[in-house]
Amino acid sequence: MRLPVLDNVDLRGKRVLVRADLNVPFEDGRITDTTRIDRFAAGMRPLLDRGARLVILTHFGRPEPNVMSPEFSLDKFRPALAEALGAPVRFSDVCVGMSAVILSEQLKDGEVLLCENLRLNPGETQNDPDFAAGLAQLGDIYVNDAFSCAHRAHASTEGLARLLPAYAGPLMIEETRALTAALEAPKRPSVAIVGGAKVSTKIPVLKNLVGKLDALIIGGGMANTFLFADGHPIGKSLCEPDQVDTVAEIRALARAAGCQILLPTDLVCARDFAAGAEHRITGLDGCGDDEMILDAGPDSVARFGQALRHAETILWNGPLGAFEIPPFDAATVALARMAADLTDAGAVTTVAGGGDTVAALNAAGVTGDFTYVSTAGGAFLEWLEGKVLPGIAALAASDKEAA
């Protein structure tokens, strides 16, 4: 989709109402990971330099609607946000109402107002027209810079885009361009790595990817279900026997599309899922009845690596094993570092996303070496499924200048 951009919009004197995703981890009185704030601020600083009067909308956690609790207030985010933006941040203890409107109208060029947690009002998740209209009073133009929330038709992501001149923010543009390049128009050969626990949670993803890419590497618990479907023993491993027909359907779609499915050729098995647990490497028929398959073995890594070295586009979603606990992180870490090295050499474009994926890349120390890493969870998955995201569709419906 072509999205309206801010490049030629005169922002001076305008209240720019921005939907951000600042839903960051907060523990023991502090933000433990400022990545989302830092990335958001990097895109907003140029807008402030152009004279924008920034009004920020975001959510945090899952509060009970209409119940105010300091635990879910955004006021505590102001210091980190001000530091990242390089500007003082005012605060409105409501996100709709006359007091919020007055504060927004008091802003001068280059100033910032943060509004209270959107999800304290039930109208947000209900996409209530009256709530959206109340939000619209806070701005002159609307900017959606929260791709990670674009899969939800909420008041601040879908409703607002129909009430004000609407544009995609810098992060939104960056994300959609990266994902489109990796999925809709990839440089070929193109390879996807898809891991995770269950086939059932990623059926639409797998069906969509085999029709668009040249090869699909399957790991994690999902690979166990494929191996089970092939008649290999899997012991006590995570598996979904009821998905055998789905496996056959995915393989048929892959054959029809000319997409190669790559599965592990050797396995790391253990009786206990614990750090440093005694383990062994075995062939596909070597998993004992009292063992679990917890990672792909070195031969699998070598074979998967060969596919990566021949690729020009790599799309990654999900780990190859139980990466949270060594030594069952070996395959994930090895392939992550290989993909990062190929990226650094300019040989491949790498795009990754999903919560477990980001955690795995962080553990491997290569997050900054990939071409693009998405912090979106549900929105990233729905994009991989080929779905149209409501927040993006509402922006695309605009007839503004697009890019």
Note the main attributes of this structure.
Rossmann fold; 15 helices; 17 strands; 17% strand; single chain; 403 residues; six-stranded parallel sheet; alpha/beta; 2 domains
Would you tell me which CATH topology of the largest domain applies? Answer: Rossmann fold
Superfamily at the CATH H level of the largest domain? Phosphoglycerate kinase, N-terminal domain
Mean pLDDT: 94
- Main-sheet strand order equals 5-6-4-1-7-8
* CATH architecture field of the largest domain: 3-Layer(aba) Sandwich
Quote the distance from N terminus to C terminus.
9 Å
Largest sheet: 6 strands, parallel
- The CATH class of the largest domain is identified as Alpha Beta
Summarize the amount of helix as a percent range: 25-40%
Write down the overall geometry.
elongated
| Spans of at least 5 consecutive residues with low confidence | none
Topology:
Blueprint: E1 15-19, E2 26-27, E3 30-31, H1 35-49, E4 53-57, H2 78-85, E5 89-92, H3 98-106, E6 112-115, H4 122-125, H5 129-136, E7 141-144, H6 155-159, E8 166-168, H7 170-183, E9 190-194, H8 203-210, E10 215-218, H9 220-229, H10 244-257, E11 260-262, E12 266-270, E13 279-283, E14 292-296, H11 298-309, E15 313-317, H12 330-344, E16 349-353, H13 355-364, E17 372-374, H14 378-384, H15 390-396
Parallel strand pairs: 1-4, 1-7, 4-6, 5-6, 7-8, 9-10, 9-15, 10-11, 15-16, 16-17
Antiparallel strand pairs: 2-3, 12-13, 12-14
Helix pairs in contact: 1-2, 8-10, 9-10, 11-12, 12-13
